[in-house]
């Protein structure tokens, strides 16, 4: 069992459509599939463009800090076992990559 996603080196695969889907494969070869199932207060077209830029950057990264901050106020993130992993407010400016 993963202690937390943030403690693992991860590969993050992103697709952005009706929902944001994340597949995270840890060094322990455990695959976590996460999906944002509810978005509240998405703030418009400017932030869509920011999200597109974020996704483009993520495709070029391998090891990332698994904290994704956006202008979205609230999301629910579910595991493949349909358990809520995290529900929190997000802030786009705090997104960080690690080398």
Q: Could you characterize what this model shows?
A:
With 99 residues, the chain is α+β, with helices and mostly antiparallel strands. It has one domain (5-94). 15% of the residues lie in helices and 32% in strands. It contains 1 helix and 5 strands. It has one helix at residues 45-59, and strands at residues 11-16, 20-25, 31-40, 74-78, 84-88. Strands 1-2-3-4-5 form a 5-stranded antiparallel β-sheet. It starts with 10 loop residues before the first strand and ends in an 11-residue tail after the last strand. This is (northern house mosquito) hypothetical protein.
Summary tags:
99 residues, alpha+beta, five-stranded antiparallel beta sheet, 1 helix, 15% helix, globular, disordered C terminus, (northern house mosquito) hypothetical protein
Note the topology.
Layout: E1 11-16, E2 20-25, E3 31-40, H1 45-59, E4 74-78, E5 84-88
Task: Summarize the model shown.
The protein has one helix at residues 45-59, and strands at 11-16, 20-25, 31-40, 74-78, 84-88. By secondary structure, the protein is of the alpha+beta class.
> If helices are DSSP runs of H or I spanning 4 or more residues, what is the number of helices?
1
Q: Based on DSSP secondary structure assignment, what is the total number of beta strands?
A: 5
Which whole number gives the mean pLDDT? Answer: 38
For the record, give the distance between the C-alpha atoms at the N and C termini, rounded to a whole number: 25 Å
Strand order across the biggest sheet?
Answer: 1-2-3-4-5
**DSSP strand content:** 25-35%
Show unreliable segments. 1-45, 58-99
Q: Tell me the helix content.
A: 10-25%
> What kind of sheet is the major sheet?
5 strands, antiparallel
Query: Radius of gyration in whole Å, from Cα?
Result: 13 Å
Number of domains: 1
Protein name: (northern house mosquito) hypothetical protein
Organism: Culex pipiens (House mosquito)
């Amino acid at each position: 069992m993963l202690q937390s996603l943030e403690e693992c080196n991860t590969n993050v695969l992103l697709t952005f459509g009706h929902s944001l889907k994340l597949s995270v494969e840890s060094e322990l070869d455990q695959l976590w599939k996460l999906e944002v199932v509810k978005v509240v207060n998405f703030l418009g077209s400017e932030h869509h463009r920011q999200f597109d830029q974020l996704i483009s950057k993520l495709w070029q990264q391998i090891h990332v800090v698994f904290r994704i901050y956006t202008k979205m106020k609230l999301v629910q993130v579910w595991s493949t076992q349909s358990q809520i992993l995290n529900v929190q407010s997000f802030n786009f400016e705090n997104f960080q990559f690690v080398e």
